[in-house]
Design a protein that fits this description.
Bound molecules: ligand EPZ
Radius of gyration: 21 Å
Number of helices: 14
Strand order of the largest sheet: 22-23-1-24
CATH superfamily of the largest domain: Enolpyruvate transferase domain
Largest sheet: 4 strands, mixed
Distance between the termini: 6 Å
Length: 415
């Protein structure tokens, strides 16, 4: 298993470019199931999760070819509704084929994703929504077995604005008969990006980015070409890298419209930024404590919680971080404490007592964003750190160690 060796503390300088969004790309790949024509996606990051999604598309009878950052998917050969456990367990987002398969084949045989380090991650809201649209759903041997004569428009209410749940229902509804209304829909920018692609494919959707989305079913969809939005979580992670090392770097290709909450907290904890054309110069000398409460968009994203915790572990004072989205998203606390942080967890709150310095140590990545927070902490820690199980990082960050090395970080991947 690959690991990182990091020498700290390091100063960063220079310019880096944000890659395309993982969480916008994944549903868009699945959306190709809805048409026989080519779906061409540009700015798709080169990540393990994208590879896994492409493997799943091949499993369903589709083609999925990459040329640099362009992915061309064609599902004219779609001949299976089976999403096997050994693929789904590697990447929970595989559940995103459920809605499109029900729309296109009126059947789905999709493994339940199972939990992950950060929580149980049920898909009951996805299932209930498909049932309300006429899908018969059984759970057998860990699989969702669903079929229907046709999908009918329905009013779907989510008691939690689930991101992939909203994406699955939108993709089921675009070919359903009649109108579907989703109430308490997820408003994340990645959901909006998917809907923009679907509208280019001929879908009739109103209200993207709002809590109520209306979809008028159409007979069929055509292919489309689309450029995926930049990754707002990678953007936030690079901003944190600048602040935790008290550096000044330029980040290009920033999705400014999608990072209000991240930028707001970044300034609150001492971050500075200057807008440049299609990017910004970020940095900061003095880290201040604050209160963070994760929330659904447009609130502060749970996917940025671990990275901000790493920065706040060096703040001048005590911060409190409340995680409201996932029930177990503090796995990075024990590892940050191994690096000399002083963090105590009580329920869904973490109390982060800022310390003078972090000190290099061997630590273990446990999940995607936790691994990013350990990299950030190791950049600032005095001495050598070793980060194990960085396959977690490879799932969601494109060439992060190369980008950091170009900025002057001392970070090596050891096979
Ligand atoms: C998406 O996961 C993202 N993944 C996650 O990013 C992100 O953390 C999460 O949204 C929240 O923003 C992708 O987009 C591929 P949810 P998703 O359904 O859709 C509960 C990363 O780091 N829930 O919005 O699975 C659930 O347990 C990943 O890139 C139900 O109870 O998240 C959680 O507590 C990690 N029943 C809350 O809702 C359901 O049927 C939010 O989950 C569905 C969800």
């Amino acid at each position: 298993m690959d690991r990182f060796i990091v020498e700290g503390p390091t100063k960063l300088k220079g310019t880096t470019v944000v890659s395309g969004s993982k969480n916008a790309s994944l549903p868009m790949i699945s959306a190709a199931i809805l048409t026989d024509e080519d779906v061409v996606l540009h700015n798709v990051p080169d990540l393990m999760d994208i590879d896994t999604m492409c493997k799943l598309m091949f499993q369903l009878g589709c083609n999925c070819g990459r040329k640099k950052d362009t992915l061309r998917i064609n599902c004219s050969g779609l001949d299976s509704d089976f999403a096997p456990y050994d693929l789904v367990r590697k990447m929970r987002a595989s559940i995103l084929v459920f809605g499109p398969l029900m729309a296109r084949l009126h059947s789905a045989h999709v493994s339940l994703p199972g939990g992950c380090a950060i929580g149980v991650r049920p898909v009951n809201l996805h299932i209930n929504a498909i049932k309300s649209m006429g899908g018969k759903v059984e759970i057998e041997n860990g699989y969702i077995i669903s079929e229907t004569d046709k999908l009918n428009g329905s009013t779907v209410y989510f008691d939690i604005p689930t991101v992939t749940g909203t994406e699955n229902v939108v993709m089921a509804a675009v070919l359903a008969e009649g109108k579907t209304i989703i109430k308490n829909a997820a408003r994340e920018p990645e959901v909006v990006d998917l809907i923009k692609l679907l509208k280019k494919m001929g879908a009739k959707i109103e209200g993207e980015g709002e809590s109520v989305i209306e979809i008028e079913g159409v007979k069929s969809l055509k292919g489309a070409e689309y450029t995926v939005m930049a990754d707002r979580i990678e953007t936030g992670t690079l901003m944190c890298a600048a602040l935790i090392t008290h550096s000044e770097i330029e980040i290009k290709n920033v999705p400014l419209y999608a990072i209000d909450a991240i930028l707001d907290k970044f300034i609150e904890i001492g971050g500075k930024y200057i807008l440049t054309d299609n990017g910004m110069i970020v940095g900061g000398e003095y880290i201040k404590p604050t209160l963070i409460k994760t929330a659904v968009y447009p609130g502060f994203p749970t996917d940025m919680q671990a990275q901000f915790m790493a920065v706040l572990s060096l703040a001048n004072g005590t911060s409190i971080i409340e995680e409201t989205i996932f029930e177990n998203r503090f796995m990075h606390v024990a590892e940050l404490n191994r690096l000399g942080a002083n963090i105590i967890v009580s329920g869904n709150k973490a109390v982060v007592e800022g310390v003078e310095n972090l000190v290099g140590a061997s630590v273990m990545a446990t999940d995607l964003r936790a691994s990013a927070s350990l990299v950030l902490a190791a950049l600032a820690a005095h001495g050598k750190s070793e980060i194990l199980r960085i396959y977690h990082l490879d799932r969601g960050y494109e060439k992060l160690e190369e980008k950091l090395t170009q900025l002057g970080a001392k970070i090596w991947r050891v096979k």
